[in-house]
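Hi V.,

Quick status before I head out on leave. The structure for the redesign project is tokenized and pasted below; the design run finished overnight.
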């Protein structure tokens, strides 16, 4: 016959059960911390991002805007889902023969007024945002850039990364290497008047064997050219690189265009930046 537990033995059982729970939690935390940045483990932990555009600050969250011609303003989400959003609109009328049509935000300015630029070899950043486009005219054989990782300063030549809409009804992520050779890393169908989430993971490096690119679309990690989720790439060009969102297009495309931007952010992990 079992003997009834005394108060002291009950306390001992409770203590052992508590230690077991602590051990389980510690193991779980260790597994999560060992998960690659931006993968499932990191996605469960959201730290404060390094930068997030706040619609209440208007355009002060960005280092600048480029409206040639166009306007950038804060509006209510026309789909009624995500609240205040940034609207980037262009009439599509060229301001002169030499200037391509563009309406874009440029860079990141934090709440204290400082600029966040990607310039240090080996740094890792995750850039996340939500986009909706429409109208967005395209033309076969031409392109419309919707997001780009743009290079600045000495040695700047062309953006290392560009998210482009094509005239064939697709949108793709294009990589341009230091020799200006372009590679399509990923593509999918272009849908208008619908929100889509993006996160781009970037390891900053001038060396194409050390830098890399990752991409999530609507919350799912994407396989890039070569069949892997991480593509080796030289992501640092010039003195620094930074982000641009909006509409920038080749001269073969005409007509009005509008891009909506919601929850743009920069963090050190996928979970910090995902919209």
């Amino acid at each position: 016959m079992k003997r009834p537990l005394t108060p002291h033995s009950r306390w001992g059982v409770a203590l052992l059960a508590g230690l077991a729970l602590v051990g389980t939690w510690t193991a779980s935390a260790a597994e999560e911390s060992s998960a690659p940045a931006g993968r499932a483990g990191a996605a469960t932990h959201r730290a404060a991002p390094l930068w997030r555009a706040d619609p209440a600050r208007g355009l002060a969250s960005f280092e600048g805007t480029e409206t040639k011609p166009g306007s950038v303003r804060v509006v209510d989400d026309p789909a009624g889902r995500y609240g205040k959003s940034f609207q980037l609109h262009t009439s599509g009328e060229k301001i002169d023969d030499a200037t391509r049509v563009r309406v874009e935000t440029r860079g990141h300015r934090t709440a204290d007024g400082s600029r966040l630029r990607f310039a240090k070899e080996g740094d890792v950043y995750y850039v996340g945002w939500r986009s909706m486009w429409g109208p967005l005219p395209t033309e076969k054989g031409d392109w419309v850039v919707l997001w780009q990782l743009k290079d600045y300063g000495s040695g700047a030549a062309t953006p290392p990364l560009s998210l482009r809409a094509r005239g064939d009804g697709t949108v793709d992520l294009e990589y341009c290497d230091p020799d200006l050779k372009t590679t399509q890393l990923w593509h999918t169908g272009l849908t208008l008047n619908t929100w889509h989430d993006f996160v781009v993971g970037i390891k900053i490096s001038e060396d194409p064997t050390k830098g890399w690119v990752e991409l999530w679309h609507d919350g799912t990690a994407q396989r890039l050219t070569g069949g892997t989720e991480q593509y080796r790439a030289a992501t640092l060009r010039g003195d620094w690189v930074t982000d641009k969102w909006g509409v920038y297009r080749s001269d073969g495309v005409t007509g009005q265009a509008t891009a909506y931007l919601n929850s743009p952010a920069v963090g050190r992990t996928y979970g910090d930046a995902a919209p």
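Above is the designed sequence. Confidence is low (pLDDT under 50) at residues 7-38, 40-44.

G. will cover questions while I'm gone.

Best,
W.
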